[in-house]
Amino acid sequence: MWRSLLVLGIILSLINPLFSRSAQAQSALEVVPQDSEEPFAGEALCLPGVYLQEPDGCLALGPSTYLTGLAKKGFTFPVRALPAEVADPSASLLPYQYLKVTKGSIPTYGSLDDAIAHNRSGFIEAGMKYLVIYERVDTDFGTFYSLPSGYWIDGGEAEAACCIISGRFQGMAFRHPPRNSFGWILTTTPVYSAPGYASPQTGRELYRETLLQVYAVEQADNVKWAMIGIDEWVEDRVIARVTANPTPPEGVPGDRWIEVNLEEQVMLVYDQRQLVYATMISTGVEPFYTRPGVFQVYQKKDIETMRGSFEADRSDYYYLENVPWTMYFDEARALHGAYWHTLFGYPQSHGCVNLSPADARWLYAWAEQGEWVYVWDPSGLTPTDPSYYGAGGA
Fold this sequence. Notes:
Blueprint (H helix, E strand, L loop, with lengths): L1 H27 L34 H10 L11 E2 L12 E4 L4 E4 L2 H6 L2 E5 L3 E5 L2 E5 L2 E5 L5 E3 H4 L1 E5 L7 E3 L6 E5 L3 E4 L8 E6 L4 E4 L1 E5 L2 E7 L2 E4 L3 E4 L14 E5 L4 E6 L2 E7 L12 E4 L2 E10 L9 E13 L2 E5 L15 E3 L1 H10 L5 E5 L18
Parallel strand pairs: 5-24, 19-27, 25-26
Antiparallel strand pairs: 1-10, 2-5, 2-9, 3-4, 6-7, 7-8, 10-21, 11-14, 11-18, 12-13, 15-16, 16-17, 19-20, 20-21, 22-27, 23-24, 24-25
C-alpha cells in the first residue's frame, strides 16, 4: 500500500508544475483592455493606406503612418491635380501690333508725305515707348508707321523693334477650392531630396512658370523649403506661392474681392468666399510701391494710353499705347494687362498691378465697377504711411 501512495505522490509532484506553467502562459495571452495605454502587441498591422481616424482591429503603423502623414499635408496616391484649368488659352492674343521704340526722342509727322519730306509736327520724348501700329508702309525712302493718334513716324529714325507679341503666361481658374498651397516657379531651380543645401539633389530641374503644389514648408539652413512631392524639396523663395484664405479681409464687406499679395507677387480672386482665380503679377518697384490698403475699382477702360515719369530728370519716362483691360482702384494705380514684359512674379511697375494680357482679360470680364481690392504685404516691408505715396503709375 505504501508503495502505491509513494507512486501517486511522485506523479502529483510532476503534474503540478505543468499546471502552474500553463496558468502563467494563459495569463500572458490575456487581451489588454481597450482603454489601456498600450494596444495589444499581437494585433495585426493595418494594410498600407490612409487612416485619418484611428482604425479598429488593426494598428496603423509602418507604411500606414507614412501615408497618413502625407495625406494630412494634402498628398495622396495617386496625386490629385489642382481643381483648376487655364480659362481661355486664346485670351493672350491681342488685336494690336506693338512697336518697341529703342531710340531716344523721336519726331512725329502729320501725314505720310510729311514723314517722307521730314516735315516734323512734334516729337515723343526719350524713354520706354511702345506704340500701336495702325499701318506699315514700305517706300523707296524707308519704312513708315501710322499711329492711333493719326501721326506717322519714320521706322529708321525710331530704330523700332517690330512687332511685339505679348507673352503666353496665364493663371488658373478654379472649379473647387484647392486642398493645399500651390505656386509657380520663378527661375530655374534644382530639386533636393530633403530640406537643406547638404541634402542630395534628385537630378531634376524645374523651369520658370512651372505650376506645382506645395504640401509643407520647413526651415533649414536659415531658409524656407517647400515640399513639392515625395522626397522633393525646393527653396520656397523660388516659388510665387498662393495660399487661399476665404475669409473676407477687414474692410471688405461682401463675398467678392481681389487680393494682391505684394510679398508673393500673386493675385487671388474670390467669389462667394471661394477662390476662383489665381495668377502671378508684377507690382511697384521701390520706391514706387503699390500702396497697401482696401480700395474699390472706380473706373474700367478696355484700352488706355499711359504715360508719365517720376524722376526729376524724367529719365524714367514711359509712353505705352493701348494698355489692355485697365481697372483703376487707387488714384492712377490700376490692375491692367502688360504686354511689354513677361517677368511676372517680380516687382516691375510704377505702382500699378501688371497682369498678363490673358489674366487681365479674365479679370476685366469678371469684375464690376466698385469691386473690392485688398492689397497687403505679409512681410510687412512695404510702407503703409499714406503720406509716402503719390498718384502712382504703370
